[in-house]
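Lab notebook page, bench 4
Experiment: in silico fold of construct C2
Operator: M.H.
Input chain length: 306 residues
Purpose: comparison with the prior construct
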Amino acid sequence: MNRFGSDKPDLRFDLELVDLTAALKDSACQIFTQARKPGMAIKALRYPGGANAPRSFFDGLQEWAKSQKMKGVAYLVFEADGAKGPLAKFLSEADLAGIRAQTGAVTGDVVFFAVAPWRIACSALGNLRLLLAERLQLRDPNVFAFCWIVDFPMYEREEDSGHIVFSHNPFSMPQGGMHALETQDPLDILAYQYDIVCNGTELSSGAIRNHDPAIMYKAFEIGGYPRAEVDQHFGHMIRAFEFGAPPHGGIAPGVDRLVMLLAGEPNIREVIAFPKNQKAQDVMVGAPSPVDPAQLKELHIRIVED
């Protein structure tokens, strides 16, 4: 997330995000002073040669930013006679030098900034990174860039409520087991989870299973689930593990996603066997379809008209 703005990064090209929170902590620019609040960050992304882009491109990004939960995207254009753009007059020479040093910007480049809660800033510039890659034609269709993503956070803070919730798979084993759950800040706990990613597409997701009932109760307690609720929803699993399951894990490969990449299709609907339309209908077999009353009776199901 910090480098590419995504937990399924496309590694066929560079354009890495840069964190400028520390470098601009003393800036007097009002936009950047917002990052002094807890949880806020300043992320930056260099657009090589972006100074040649038309004004309409930059104007269009302001509307696009709203779809990313941001008020807008600030930017600087580095020209031969100095930095230009909406931010330039509010930045000191020290600010500009720090930005150049951290991002590697040279004359002719543009640097975009996102000042927002860390996750939102990363995600927004991660999506902008993909837009720039498309504009600069950086994604080679003949290259398959695989990578493993590991050490997912066990928990995250829900944006609206502020509550601690599970970040990924609640049934994963936390790294450090019960000791970590009892002694660490929940937001610092990592899970034994792993994804394999290719060209920005998650192909498989897996984890080491939380097989210890005591650790499972504690993990769910931190996530806001009392013991009674865990028993109600997952009692069958708890009872099974009480017989003494060994440590175990697995991974679920998405073969259809791999076929999508090999076929050069942008949408998985083009390669799966029975795609649904926008009304959730399977036009191949005509489902859903009327059910015979005898079948409903056999299953003890009664349809009540609204």
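Observations: The chain has a mean pLDDT of 88. The first strand starts at residue 18 and ends at 19.
Next step: discuss at group meeting.
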